[in-house]
Structures are given as C-alpha cells and as structure tokens.
Design a protein that fits this description.
271 residues, four-stranded mixed sheet, three-stranded antiparallel sheet, Lambda Exonuclease, Chain A, alpha/beta, single chain, 9 strands, 11 helices
Amino acid sequence: MTDSKMIRGMSAEEYHADPRPSWSTVKLAMLDCPLAAKVRSETQSEPTPAMQFGSLVHTLTLEPETFDRLYHVTEATRRGTKAWKADEDEAGDRTLIKSSEYLEAQALAELLRGAAADAGITIDPEWVELSCYSSRPGTPARARPDLLDPKTGLVWDVKTTRSLRPQAFMRQCLNLGYYGQIVNNAEILSDVLDTEIKPGGIIAVQTGFPRHAIALPFGEDALAVGGHQYAEAWRIWLDCEAADHWPAYEYPNGVLGVPSWMESESADDDE
C-alpha cells in the first residue's frame, strides 16, 4: 500500500473510494481542526451541485473525449417529469445534465483551454487527472493532479471561481488551501515519477460576469505559502495519527474571549 505508483484512466469514483488521505482531507487539520480532518477521512460525502458542475467543467476542459461516456444531456428542464425520467433511463450509469448546464460548462471550458494555450501550457490527454499514490508526505497518501505539462514539468490545477478579482481570489486560494494543494501535487508527482516536478499554478475561470479565464503561475510568495501549508497540514496530520488524538477547536485558556481584530483595535486606541 506504500509503493509509489501512478494510474491513468482511473475513474473519479474509484480514486475517491481509496482510504488513503488526500490533500482535501489533510488540509482540514490546518484550516479547520484535526477532528474535522479525521471525520472527513472516515466519511463518504455526496458531492454538492457546485462540485458536480466543477467536475463537468474539468471533464470538458481536460478530457473532452470522455464526455459522452460520462454524461448524457437532456432537453428536459425539470426533474421528475416524464421527459426527465425517460432520459434518466437512457442515461443509465451516466450523469444526466441539463442542456443549459452543458452549454455553460462548455463555454467555461473553452475559456480555460484558451487561457492555457495563451500561457503556453500543454494539455496532453496522457497527463491529466493522474491518480497518484505515494508515501512522500510521511504516510501513505494519494493525489489526483489536474494537469502535468510534460514539456515543462510543471503541475497545474483548474479552478472555477465566482470572482477573479485579485484580492478576492488570493484570499480564496489561502482559505481553501489551493497554494498547498499545488505543492502537495508536485511533491507526490516527484516521488511517483522519480524526477523533479515543480508547482506551476492555477488556471482559473470566473463563472460570474464578465466570464474570464487566466493562467496564474505561482510567484515566490505563493510558493512560500504553498510550502508552508503543505508542511504544516501534513505535520498536524502525522502528529495526530501518531498520538491517535484528533482534537477539535481550542480556546485560549479554555475561556470565551473576543476576536483578535478587536484586541488590535483596542491596542491602537490606547496609543
């Protein structure tokens, strides 16, 4: 279970069924609390509509040739109608999506692919959605990088976001652990491929108006934050795993105080 390996063509369902921790779980030990990470690792949660739409955009961006095998488009607009049920029967194991959802996702995917091309990023079907297994973080772990550019050795991730305004998106990358995710994927790919893979960055598309996509390579600050998030999240996970202790939230001195920003304002007033 600890051998390093990479598997192409594995379904998302099979990958997510593996019990080894991934970044989406481990990061919660740092961003939320260790107990949240532990519960996530033991629970199979249903994908939200936003997650399902994101998966659709990923498929159309990175693996459009697999779309017909994974999805079936319906012209029905309401679930539960005869037309919807008939298309459900026709879809079989495929995911049924509305034509409006397909058209929106296709438009976003075209923007993402265009942004990648403008940045000189190669989308090679052999190097997308790679299911990787490694003990590089210090314990058996898994990762599924969106995209490795075989020409540059840089790993990228595709994101949909409501806003690409710089401060808003950078805050989202920090709060959701996107910086650490890219470093995590680079570390695990480096181990699996036995060669140095470096963090590339994020190819992001704004889903709101105006629709816009851009490839954002990591700057020095982003690399530093990503390295810190990667190291800190796995450190907390490994410490909790070794002690078999997964604490929830901690309050200073065990009492209810006030937010830190109020303390800062109070100190400013005193000056």
